[in-house]
Each structure stands twice: as C-alpha cells, then as structure tokens.
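Morning!

This is the sequence you dropped in the shared folder:
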Amino acid sequence: MGHPLRILTFTSLFPNSVDPSYGIFIYNRTSHLADRPGNEVIVVSPVPYFPRWLKTKRWRKASQIPAAETTGELVVYHPRYPLLPKISMPLHALLMFLGSWRRCAKLNREARIDCIDAHFVYPDGMAAVLLGKVLGVPVTVSARGTDINLFSSFLLIRPMIRWTLKQSAAAIAVSAALKEKMKELDIDLGKIHVIPNGVDAASFQAIPREDARRKLGLAQDGPVLVSVGSLIPEKGHQLLIQALGHVVGIHPGLRLYILGEGPFRAKLENLAAELGLNERVQLLGKRRHEELPLWFSAADASCLLSSREGWPNVVSESLACGTPVVGTRVGGIPEILHSPELGVLVEQTSESVAAGIERVLAKPWNREEISRQTRARTWEIVAAEVEDVLRAHGPQRDAPRTPKPNGAS
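The structure's back. Tokens below.
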C-alpha cells in the first residue's frame, strides 16, 4: 500500500435520499474503496437544476435532492447544473462541469485531491476530465455500457467520448467486450483496464425457495421466471413474453414476474393480453433493491434478454442467489455466464429464448455451487483492483499544481 489517497468520486448516478437504490453499484464500489486503509473518498454527484413549479415528475424529483447529504459513511455533494433534456445533450458535459467546478475547487482547497474517479464516459467523464485540468488532478474514467455502446454512435457525442478517453489518465471497462468497443475509438489499450463489477455477498445469497415464495406471497407449485430491468425495448421483455407463449403448453403452471418500470409498460401489457398470458405475466413495477434476493431465490431462473449491456449486475445478483440465468450473447453477459453450469445463452429471437427456457427448466442446477462461485467476486476485491489503477496512473505528489481560474471558490 502506498501513501493515503484523497479521492473525488464524480458521478451523476449515485444513491440519494429521494431514490436510495439509484446507482447502487457505483455506491458499492465507492464505499469499499473508501474502506481501504488510508483512503478518503468524497462524492460529488451533480443533479440537473429544475424549477419546482414545472410539472414533470422525472425532473421534479431532482429538485428534492439536498445540496449535501450522507449516504452510508460517504459525504455526498449535489451541485446543480442547467439541463434541457435531449436538447442540450451535446452540451451536457460542459454544463455539468460549470455547475460542479466551484464545489470541487473548494474541496481541493480544503485538502488536496489526489485523483478523480469518474463514472460513465459521457457526460460525467468528460466533465470530470475538465475538472481535472482545472485542478491539476489525474482522472480515471469508468465506462459502464451505454456511454460506449450507444452514445459513441452519436455524431456529435462520439468525438467528445474519444477526447475524454484520450485525455484521461486511465480508463476502466467493466467488461472485456466493452474494452473491445473502446478500441474502435483509437484509444491506447495500455490505459484501459478491465475491472468487472462485484456482488454484494452479504445481501445476495441463496434463500430456500419455499421461504422466499412464502415471504413474497407466491404459490409454492409451478415454475417461476423473473426478469429485472427497466421497461424499455432494449431490455427485451417483449421477447420473453413472446417466448412464454411458445412454452406454456409444456409448462401449464409457468409464471413470469417482471420487476421494473418504464415507458414500455403499456406495450408489454398489451402484448401479454394479445397472447392470452394475462394470468401468467405480472408487471410488478420497480422493487426495492433489498427485495431482489427474495425474487431471485423464489425463481427457477431469471432472464435478461438485452440488446446491449455493459456488465449487468442483475445477472451476477441472480447467480449469487443460486439462480441460473437465461441471457443474450451481448456485452458482458457471456463473460458472466462463462460456464454452462451458470445458465443458458440465447439469441435475440423469441424461438431461441423459448428453447433457452426449456433447457433451463429441464436441467438440474447446483444452486449452492452457482452461488459460491459468483459470491467470490466481492466489492472488496473490485475496490482493491480500482485502487491499483488509481495509484498506477497518478497521483504525482510532486507535480506542479495547475493554477485555478480567477474567481474559483
């Protein structure tokens, strides 16, 4: 271990008092990084400014988040920045930087920040690199999935993503597949480190199926499938419902529970009705993160049929509960389901998904071994790997400080 690190974690995706489960995976990595000996971690999690009187539910919630709060043992600051949804996307990073730099400069004056640990390449990562240039602090940027898989295809955003990665001291990819996508941006591979997410082993562990179903009020008989994810087309819930129509004749008691919320809800409900699956498919909305181990443990299998992914935590969390997964061959999913003893990989068609469901329901699974293997990759291990990267690419204690701009406070 080297000298103590004072780390600024910069991310707009972080749990807060309005939404305690928002970005919980970033909280897990950050809190365990803070727990390592000698480290001090401060979190700056900017939120868009939105007038309270405007009647838009999504952005009204942002106005209820306090300017500063404590999440777990971490002090979290929430500076405001102006944002017009969709319209200002090309300016998003700059606006985030302008809204955050006074707070970050003040924290740096109080005690020198050694490095910035930023999450999502755009807009957060670019804003963090701009902060790093103002403060004279090295920045490590973590790519999470959508930033590289989707945003890099946008004509105006792609050059900014490339600039951010080139200007950062180091980059972290949560999967090898994501690193391969980053190579297409002509980034020096020596600065890209693959560090997959961990799993909260204390929370996600196997619960006897009968106990889990009883606590959730589910019937004890019949196979159960669970799918956790936002109700958007990219998560593939529609494929799962269509596939269910192919297999219900073989498994008359089969039920599907979809946990998540989003704009695709009505279409999914209509699809289930059209296929005569109303009694078998239940859309339960977003559930508390603490409730997920019960759902995974109650299920015979969980399903994630996304069209793109980084490192989907719900797959690891399902496996940690001993529940096999039916997943598509995209992003980091094949890296998580690296063995046929963990689940079944399928193509993005309802026929392939149906065949995958058949296989997962027919096979006897060693749920105890599935749980043991997955729970071995803890957030403590991830935090140690992240700290190694932060130390390898900075800070330079003896490097000259970059002057702050006039008026910094």
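Headline: The first strand starts at residue 6 and ends at 10.

More detail when I'm at my desk.
O.
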